[in-house]
Amino acid sequence: MTGNEIPEVVINRLPVYVRALALLALEGRRVVSSRELGGELGVTPAQIRKDLSYFGRFGKQGRGYNVGHLLDTLRSILGLDREWKMALVGAGRLGQAILGYGGFGPQGFHIVKAFDSAPGLIGRREGALIVEDVAHLGASLREEPVDIGIVAVPGEIAQEVIDVLVESGVHAVLNYAPIAVRVPAGVQLRQIDPVLSLQSMTYFLAQDGSSAAPAG
Amino acid sequence: MTGNEIPEVVINRLPVYVRALALLALEGRRVVSSRELGGELGVTPAQIRKDLSYFGRFGKQGRGYNVGHLLDTLRSILGLDREWKMALVGAGRLGQAILGYGGFGPQGFHIVKAFDSAPGLIGRREGALIVEDVAHLGASLREEPVDIGIVAVPGEIAQEVIDVLVESGVHAVLNYAPIAVRVPAGVQLRQIDPVLSLQSMTYFLAQDGSSAAPAG
Known about the structure:
Two copies of one chain form a homodimer.
Chain A: H1 8-26, E1 31-32, H2 34-41, H3 45-53, E2 65-66, H4 67-78, E3 84-89, H5 93-99, E4 109-116, E5 125-126, E6 129-130, E7 132-133, H6 137-143, E8 148-151, H7 155-167, E9 172-175, E10 188-191, H8 194-208
Parallel strand pairs in A: 3-4, 3-8, 4-7, 8-9, 9-10
Antiparallel strand pairs in A: 1-2, 5-6
Helix pairs in contact in A: 1-4, 2-3
């Protein structure tokens, strides 16, 4: 299988399929149709069949998908059957909230290093970690590499931090800073962007005519 | 125009179109083709034409879209030409990071109330706000309604908080708690889910064979 031919938008949908399939498996379901899976996710059955066709033949016409087999295969394709090491840059309020986030560990994502530039934070214990000086970010990551960098610094310095992460061998960046940043080809970047989520809800509020604020 | 016929996945793509169009407008571009817009966003030109066809006729065959007109129309459709009031529930580390997030205000989203249950946080000043006792959440929102609720409480109590928000007239919820929650029909819900973002990057890391951790 060559990864290059698969559109990134398809890859981005796979974790959502994995989550839905994991719920079905928990409920003891053994088979699911593309129609039912699509119905739960707001995706057409044709889209699901097309997305999965990139990775092989999973379903028999009219028989549906084997939940366990499809789940295991997608998890393996996505690399979710292993553990991933992450470094957090920015250990202020947002960074501390990320360190305390309960959702990473159970899914195999582990923050193994944390960095900040504030003298009051450097050396501070956060769970099993000691916050390191961000001035040593590159050296620290070359000594003990991580897979993913999480960026929780102010927007003004986010690009600079990301450049150091990439120079230090990080191939995937999750950016919480509210600013558009760039990475070179071959490096993955995802943005946590609550504004996009809000903007997809206001459509429905505007349709309702239920605004609490006077129209601007 | 009736909102009911438009698939939610189409609505969810519109803010991404708006962002790309706003960048093009900033660069002084007046016309863009569906091919070019799609190329920037990883969406097929056919998908863009189909998505936009729900809202009227924007482009002339072979002429491309007028950037300014399309941008204004989409912003109006999405309700982005007005101001929206939000209430934040949970003023701990994550809540304080959300209060300090610089991306909301410029896009017309304003946190006008904040709530917590911790005696050490209730009454605390956060910018222009005073943190209110979450015990008064319902009464406070009935007195001064908001459009959107932001939930930044521990997972165990997220559903309970969301139920109160909905009972108090909130029609849109942005949930940061790392747990699946439910809302009744007619209420919009979006989840800030960094794990889904991480899981869409590990595919590429697994293809690279560049894991920093031993395979699990």
